[in-house]
Amino acid sequence: MFTIDTIKGHDRMSTQDLLLAISEAVANGETNFEIAASGQHDIGGPLWHPEGKTLYFHVANAGQRLGSMCLANTEIIADGSVSADVGWLNAGGKITVKGDAGDTAGHCSAGGKIYIGGRGGTRTGSLMKHDPLYEEPQLWILKNVGSFSFEFMGGGRAVVCGIDSEEFDSVLGERPCVGMVGGIVYFRGHSHDHPADILLEELNDDDKAFLSGGMDEFLRAIEKEDLHTELTDWKQWHKLRPLSFEEKQKTNIKHTDMKSFRLNEWIKGGLFSDVAVDDFAVKNLVEKGIYRQRVPQWNNAKYAAPCEFACPANIPTQLRYNMLRKDKQEEAVKLVLEYTPFPGSVCASVCPNPCMDACTRAKIDQAVQIGPLGFQSVYAELDMPTKKTGKKIAVIGGGVAGLSAAWQLIRLGHAVTVYDDADIGGKLEQVIPRARLPHELLQAELKRIETAGVKFVPRCKVDADKFIELRKTNDAVILATGGHKSRFFPWEGVEKLTMGLDFLKAVNRGEHPAVGKNVIVIGCGNSGMDTARGAYDMGAETVTCIDVQKPAAFQDEIEYIEQLGGKLVWPFMTTKITDDGIYDNKGRFVKGDMVIVSIGEAPILDYLPQNENIKKFRDWLVPQADNSILEGIFIAGDVIKPGRLVDAIGSGNKTAYYADAYVMDKTVPAFPEKQKVPEKSLDREYFTKCHHCDLPEPIGDVNRCVSCGTCRDCKTCLESCPEKAIDRIDHGMGIVEYISDPDKCIGCGICAGVCPCGIWEMTANPELIKMYRTGEAE
Amino acid sequence: MEAIKSQDIGKADLKWNIEYLPERCTMCGSCIATCTLGAIEAGVVRVDKTYSEDFQPTPLRTHRTIPVIKQVKSIANACVGCGMCEKVCPNNAIHPVRNRDNRQTLLSRDAGPIKRGGRTNLNAQRTLDHIIVGRISQMTDPSLDSIRHTFDIRAPFGRVLPAEKLPFVLKDGKLVMAHKAPPVRWIYPLIFSDMSIGALSTRAWEAVSMAVAYLNEKCGLPVRMSSGEGGMPSKLLESEQLKYMILQIASGHFGWNRIIKAMPRMKVDPAGVLIKIGQGAKPGDGGLLQAAKVAEHVQAIRGVPKATLSSPPNHQGLYSIEESVQKMHLSLNAAFGFRVPVAIKCAASATSVSVYNNLLRDPYQICGGFFIDGIQGGTGAANEISLDHTGHPIVSKIRDCYLAAVKQGLQGQIPLYGGGGMGMTGNAAADAFKMICLGANGVFVGKMLIQLLGCVGNEEGHCNACNTGKCPTGICTQDPRLVKRLDIDRGAQKIVDYVLTFDKELRKLMAPIGNSSLPVGRSDALVSTDKAIAEQLGIQYVC
After folding, report:
1. Which residue of A lies nearest to B490 if distances are taken between CA atoms?
2. How does A196-234 read in b/e, with b if 16+ C-beta sit within 10 Å?
3. Cβ–Cβ of A271/B67 closer than 8 Å?
4. In chain A, helix, strand, coil percent, each to 5?
5. Can you state the angle between helices B395-407 and B428-438, rounded to 10 degrees?
6. Is A739's pLDDT higher than 60?
7. Does B493 contact A151 at a Cβ distance shorter than 8 Å?
8. Does B480 contact A at CB distance below 8 Å?
9. pTM here?
10. 3-state secondary structure of A576
11. More confident: B474 or A611
């Protein structure tokens, strides 16, 4: 027996001295210790007998951590109460405290048994553990414990018997078992505020077996056997245990998913259900049908090709090449005649061919040879309607405008007569040098008009009386008398001028008008060049052409004159004309013995009634929107404004359109204005530059034509559509149509992107998704 | 030879460039089909080469025309970098890249001031990231366990009276109220801030409000949401869930007709009323809703035809702080029988302290909160010049207001809420915690919520197309084709999950400093590695 009183007089033994003394005694084989302590810490462990015998401690007045790190075969009995941390890290000892324990009793104990005969402080049983190699630790408490008990408990069993604890709401204090992951806490009486992951359960048979198995020994140890009956009424007992890891996993997935929350607990149909129709179905980033952002449209021939757009007569050359591509040569050759009776005389000969300037192919290498293609149609013919309308229309003026109108009207079945004070053919016949326009070619095309049924009345001057007569005897009259009065300014010496138009007419009539040696031509436009050419032809030695501005004539016309030795002088503001030449405002002088003016012509309209309201701008007539000036009187060509021959064709076509509507008494939409195909939509990348030596004949130029705005049926879209949404429908007779199936199409626009001709066009999906509304008033 | 002029817009001029790998592309068209901005299109390129394979020059020629995806070279269709093309591309053949040397902002002003949504792209500096929670010792201040301990994370919304001002009298041995005290609600310190019906799609707005309901009903977090200035859905006004909603009234007063009409049918009081004077993203401007987004339901709820809706810069009937306090607060307190707290929201400004002082002096005790919105706040549409060049950072402003109240012994009486850039780096809990330590009672977030829903915009010029009506995620648009891209359940869940984590992360900062309730004003917990910030905020400078 090792007996020690740690206080001797006024001297208290230190913890160190006491513990070293105990260790020494154990090493010497001592097994029984009677210690009258005075607050020393850590009495009772970790100690082991050299022969493995049990060590017995009876301790009074122990300090903190009685029985700390206590090993098996150590038994400690403390009379009365002990301070904090009793049984701290107990690894197997049996520790009995007859009175109360301080805070954190049994803290981190992982073995042995701790019996408390009174209350436990805060955090009692915290971090208890169980090493599976050994028996689980037990902590028995007779009364109750303070708050935060059994925090972070990881194993073992704690028993709180709840004796003498009626005044407390909870025998486990506030917030017990926070962070507990293992072990069981049994308690008798009430507890509350357990965390959500701690289960409160009733005892099962195993629990009861454990408790009844251990209760006797506990009560005997703390000398309270009399409480046995009271404490074995299992109905008063409960247990707390943490959810196992597996159970926790399950709870984690158990939360209400948002969809069922919306369907079952949220506002029915959604909180916007009064103002927005929504099924809450979720669309993909790529959708078909109505949910596509964009849709393709096969806009074949919706837009005019640049050639067609630039041509005042709207000749759709891309269609001609399309036909040629399909070996429909005859149709192609005839097609142009629907737009002009002069494919050879104008398109192929004297037209500046704005079509070719605009041609997309010109941006790749050289324009498709649209102008020369006109030669193919010189001898072509169109079938004329057998059914006649019985309407009579007189055309005054056998020039390009009048003949174009007549051509269109005869094709519509009307009876058309063309009157001219000279030979039929207008400027083509009277003014354009034969070298620029072979006479046989013109005559062939005039013949075609006549053959078609147009009655020509040449050399018939229409004066005021004749006009009245024609008006009376026809259902409509078209005025297309052109410009025949040469214009000039009131320069000094104007009386010396020769009128250019008269001069050229005389040349074309074969009259060989006399010219000077040194001829001056005022005006460097195409007619100025024609005049210069005429002057040379008539024997002039030099020709000087002057203009106030940069010459407007075509380059090849200018070159031709220059090649003959002609000179172009500009800017030259004529002020005075003398017998020797002309002067400009800066005193410059150009020598010449004949001055021909060729700066344009104004119409001669002396046959028109004076007493009717006819609008004019200067010398020209101003028509209504339908090109009429009076009831049944329509106008075309240079009487409206000076223009190119092709402008006169366009003007004649338009006038014919309205005159037809008038005589047939039908309402027609405005003469169609074309929209040009957007340049961006054309894919020039398909075409490689052609060497200028490799240019084919105009009629063979089919492959170079981009076919702007007109489907060339190349099937690139069909082959490229990633969704196979495009179908090609063959309507026969060479007519095809492409359609895109909305149920397959995702609106990617690859069809539009790869189409060389700009046919497929993407637009915002026009199909309305009706989602929103105003709601309803209560 | 292409006819391209030096001044034509090229790819290099645009902020975002489409990087495209034709060898990977299968021309499936998905990228173009999904792009809402029309920034890409299909086209063809010519691959012409003259090559020689012989041992002496023997020129051979190839001509191939291949289909490709092209970026549209126009300012109007400029790519915003949203990356939907990349998302749908099955072959990683396409994605947008930022073009540092672009000239887009310079060239975009032909049609007047640039409009966009999102946050400031110029003043996105982060004061809060220079602040660290530096007082964690575990010796001087025992830490709590963030996971296992319980925390009281609640903030007051409403006028808080000090104990001595509470109208308690002793009657028959019991304390009773002698008269009505101002209403105070204890709410979660993270308020879902005002994004209007109109600015957001129906689905986005509903997803946010549904997340709020879920957080309240399933998670026990009393999160509140401000309606924004576009009014309220009638169904919500008449539902129990109205109690989660703070009704906003802004200078446009949009939607209040339907709110008032619904009053007789309201089952519960709303959580509060927020008078919006201004917002941090564009101080001095009223709300702006571009016509493209004024769909039929927006027209109906707001009571206006299809038009670009500009709210006036000021409430038309208010001419001074005093009047704002008295007239506006009084009317809105009265509207709900003085049972519902009424707060006020202003853009942070050099004068915010004066405003707060004025509110604190309010003798009628009818101001229930002061919301200050900093320059980093988001918006659905604003002039870019306002977004980038006007406003005021929020952090020092909250601090100044708090300290002004402390100086008068009035701190906590009118709750302070700070917003504008909260959660900008993804961690709103850290931002909230620091703001609270500096004196805020809570914070409010908006942009972050829609980012959780799926918004890809950010403060570095990414997307920000909220104003166009072409939001690729269906959040900031009323185009049904786009709205229906948004999965409302998934979006709401994302917000819920974020807030649950926010809650855990907030505890993770509260626990180490030993606070189980919100550390309002506990600036001692903060330190800064930036001396100027430390000095301005009155916190410890550390390095």
Report:
1. A258
2. ebbeeeebeeebeebbeebbeebbebbebeeeeeebbeb
3. no
4. 30, 20, 50
5. 30
6. yes
7. no
8. yes
9. 0.85
10. strand
11. B474
CB within 8 Å: B67 and A291: no
pLDDT at B323 over 80: no
- Regarding whether B323 and B366 lie in a shared domain, the answer is yes
Token code pair at residue A317:
């050359």
Instruction: With beta carbons less than 8 A apart as the criterion, state whether A503 and A531 touch.
Output: yes
Q: Looking at the 3D structure of chain B, how many domains does it have? A: 2
Of A407, A421, A408, A394, the residue nearest A449 (C-alpha): A407
Calpha distance B473→B485 (Å, rounded): 6
ipTM rounded to 2 decimals:
0.93
Instruction: Please report whether residue B123 resides in a domain.
Output: no
CA distance, residue B455 to nearest chain A CA (Å): 14
Could you report the per-residue pLDDT of A400-437, keeping only the tens digit for each? Answer: 999 999 999 999 999 999 999 999 999 999 999 898 89
In the beta sheet, which residues pair with residue A521? A545, A596
- Identify whether residues B136 and B178 lie together within a single domain: yes
Beta bridge partners of B288: B310
pLDDT surpasses 70 at B324: no
Residues in B closer than 8 angstroms to A256, CB to CB, are: 214, 218
Is B76 near chain A, with CB under 8 Å?
A: no
Contacts A287 to B, Cβ<8 Å: 33, 481
| Ramachandran quadrant class, B419 (left: phi over 0; alpha: psi -120 to 50; beta: rest) | beta
Which of B65, B74, B499 is the best mutation test for A, with the most CBs of A within 10 A? B65
Of B63, B87, B492, the CB nearest to A688: B63
Is B303 an 8 Å CB contact of chain A? no
Q: Do B29 and A688 touch (CB under 8 A)?
A: no
**Percent of chain B beyond pLDDT 90?**
86
Find the mean pLDDT for residues A344-348: 96
Q: Which of A259, A284, A293 sits opposite B36 (nearest CB)?
A: A293
Among the candidates B112, B140, B164, a domain finishes at B112
Read off the tokens for B208.
């946010």
pLDDT digits (tens, 9 = 90+) for B521-539: 999 999 999 999 999 999 9
Q: What is the DSSP string of A163-226?
A: TT-TT-S-TT-SSTTTT--EEEEEEES------TTEEEE---HHHHHHHHHHHHHHHHHHT-GG
Look up the domain containing B292 and give its range.
129-541
Local confidence band at B325 (pLDDT 50, 70, 90 cut-offs): low
pLDDT over 70, % of chain B: 99
Q: Determine whether the interchain pair A285/B30 forms a contact, defined as Cβ–Cβ distance below 8 Å.
A: yes
B496 contacts in chain A (CB < 8 Å): 258
Say whether residue B485 is in contact with chain A using an 8 A CB cutoff.
yes
Q: Which of B29, B239, B488 sits opposite A750 (nearest CB)?
A: B29
In this predicted structure, what is the pLDDT of residue A254? 59
CB contact under 8 A, A778 and B496: no
Same domain, B421 and B509: yes
**Residue B1: pLDDT above 60?**
no
Domains of chain A: 100-240 (2.160.20.60), 315-487+600-672 (3.50.50.60), 489-599 (3.50.50.60)
Instruction: Tell me, yes or no, if B135 comes closer than 8 A to chain A by beta carbon.
Output: no
**Chain A residues touching residue B472 (CB < 8 angstroms):** 285
Kindly report, residue by residue over B2-26, the tens digit of the pLDDT.
678 999 999 999 999 999 999 999 9
Contacts of A50 (CB under 8 A, 6+ apart): A26, A27, A29
CB contact under 8 A, B234 and A775: yes
Q: What is the pLDDT of residue A274?
A: 93
DSSP A586: T
Express each pLDDT in B259-268 by its tens digit: 999 999 999 9
Q: Please check whether residue B437 lies inside any domain of the structure.
A: yes
